[in-house]
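Field reference: sequence -> structure
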Amino acid sequence: MGTWGSGPFDNDVAGDLLSAVQAGDYDIDDYASHPDGGYLDADDAQTAIAVAEILAVAHGVAPKPVQLDGIDAAGDVSTLSPEPKSWVLAALERAVSDSDTSELYELWEENGPEDLAAWRAPILSRLASLKTVG
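Structure field:
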């Protein structure tokens, strides 16, 4: 059984992503493969949420969580071109839109409306804050 929680780094996919970043093996192009607006599987949604959190820390719109200790968020995202950043925002929107666009949304929806709302609220806030940065 894997790890699954409501925080941006509370799942196995995000843990793998953080390990890759720490090891210097992270390449956003490996993850930015769904620009078409199609259905977003849970792993891709979790990746987008974690990358969005790293972007938010790098741009100073979110405090640095303990999971990012030892990671230079600003350095790790400084080389991102507009295309991957755009993918992250688009994927983040799809992740929290509805069950027709996101498997992760479907999974949270199964937990009930309160859990779904509690999961979506910080992601929607993060999305809004990232739209304000360049």
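Note: The chain has six helices and no strands.
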